[in-house]
Specification:
Pfam families: TetR_N. By secondary structure, this protein is mostly helical. Helix content is 71%, strand content 0%. The chain folds into 2 domains: 55 residues, Orthogonal Bundle (Arc Repressor Mutant, subunit A), CATH 1.10.10; 121 residues, Orthogonal Bundle (Tetracycline Repressor, domain 2), CATH 1.10.357.10. It is built from 10 helices and no strands. Helix 1 packs across helix 2. The protein starts with 8 loop residues before the first helix and ends with a helix.
Length: 187
């Protein structure tokens, strides 16, 4: 425990202000509108603080993704039902897929950038956590089912490149949600 470095309270406040300012800029202008100088001005910190803390624009973008991912994982691992423990496995899986859809739509530009950065970028730590959680719920809801490939099939429509493409074609998040429900009901 002594080796764990604690963030100073002023640094934590600055980090929160920076991430809030960056999230606001991305929400208004998309990831292409993310400017280090504008984030610094909106957060009330120096540009040097941003560069020291995040390295560059992509580091800041990944920090935004990471922050939201940590909140999401905390919710499905230990939050209230139906997303968290305490609900039936099918109900939890449904809540998980709906929450993941919402999270993906909310950060679509950032996730699109992250998932297309390298050939297998989508299948990093967050995907492994999502897959493991969903496979566990599927195994509980449908004993004997091949939970791993079924989890992949349920997660596939939530890939940022595919979802961005479909949304641009006019598909709505409500239709994706309904389709996920139909797939889940088929287990």
């Amino acid at each position: 425990m002594d080796a764990v470095r604690r963030e100073r309270s002023d640094a934590a406040r600055n980090r929160a202000k920076i991430l809030d300012a960056a999230a606001g800029l991305v929400a208004r202008r998309g990831v292409d509108g993310l400017s280090m100088a504008e984030v610094a001005a909106a957060a009330g910190v120096g540009v040097g603080t941003l560069y020291r803390r995040f390295g560059d624009r992509s580091g800041l973008a990944y920090a935004l993704i990471d922050e939201r991912e940590r909140e999401f994982q905390a919710a499905f691992v230990g939050g209230p039902p139906p997303l968290g423990p305490g609900a039936e496995p099918r109900e939890r899986a449904r809540a998980f897929l709906h929450a993941l859809l919402e999270r993906t739509v909310d950060q679509l530009d950032l996730l699109l950038m992250a998932e297309t950065a390298a050939p297998l970028a989508r299948f990093g730590g967050a995907y492994r956590a999502h897959h493991a959680h969903l496979a566990m719920l599927i195994a509980q809801a449908a004993p004997g089912a091949d939970a791993g490939p079924l989890a992949d099939a349920l997660l596939a429509p939530l890939a940022a490149p595919l979802l961005a493409h479909r949304l641009r074609e006019g598909l709505t998040a409500d239709r994706v949600r309904s389709a996920l429900d139909a797939l889940l009901a088929g287990l």
